[in-house]
Write a structure and sequence with these properties.
The protein has helices at about 25-35, 50-55, 55-65, 70-80, 90-95, 100-105, 145-150, 155-165, and strands at about 10, 20-25, 85-90, 105-110, 115-120. A hairpin with a 6-residue loop joins strand 1 and strand 2 (about 20-25). A three-stranded antiparallel beta sheet has the order 1-2-3, covered by helices on one side. A two-stranded antiparallel ribbon has the order 4-5. It is α+β, with helices and mostly antiparallel strands. It is elongated and about 85 Å long. The two termini are about 50 Å apart.
Length: about 170
């Protein structure tokens, strides 16, 4: 929590482990939030930034009381439409369906040999003009066992076959 910003933080929403982050410390954002959240934020102590900073715990408690019964995604849309910096706290399921990440090509399709078609997170950065490598399935446990035994440990194919017959290798 920035000691010079209020309200600014993460607040609970309806549902299990649903949260929204709001920063309405700028005066224009504060006025818009106060209008949306009235009467929850109609405390004279909140009239100035200094008052909000001095009463931060009470302010955040009042704001939490306002956000707690609301559905997170609808609240995010409403706050953003009012010009208030706000974003839902997203989990993995939320991220895979995020329109901004999809538009940026963050996830790419792969064909996994065990579970079929999936979307996977792609490269975390791009180096232009090289582009990015496509997303691909993770290696399978044991997929390189024979190569490692042969190339690193110096085993022959016959020794590897014997280990497999004896149940040492799957």
């Amino acid at each position: 929590v920035d000691p010079h910003r209020a309200p600014s933080g993460t607040f609970p929403c309806a549902g299990v482990d649903r949260w929204i982050t709001i920063d309405a410390s700028a005066e224009a954002h504060w006025r818009a939030l106060r209008t949306l959240a009235a009467p929850a934020l109609d405390d004279p102590a909140f009239d100035t930034l200094l008052g909000r900073l001095r009463s931060r715990d009470r302010l955040h408690a009042a704001l939490s009381g306002w956000t707690r019964p609301q559905e997170r995604d609808a609240l995010e849309r409403g706050l953003q439409q009012a010009g208030i910096p706000a974003y839902r706290v997203a989990d993995g399921d939320d991220l895979i369906d995020d329109a901004d990440l999809a538009a940026d090509g963050y996830y790419g399709p792969i064909e996994d040999p065990m579970i079929g078609p999936q979307r996977m997170r792609g490269a975390q950065f791009r180096i232009e003009p090289a582009g990015t490598m496509p997303a691909r399935p993770a290696p399978r446990i044991g997929a390189s066992t024979d190569d490692v035994l042969r190339e690193v440990a110096g085993f022959t194919d016959e020794q590897i076959d014997a280990l497999r017959r004896d149940g040492v290798l799957a």
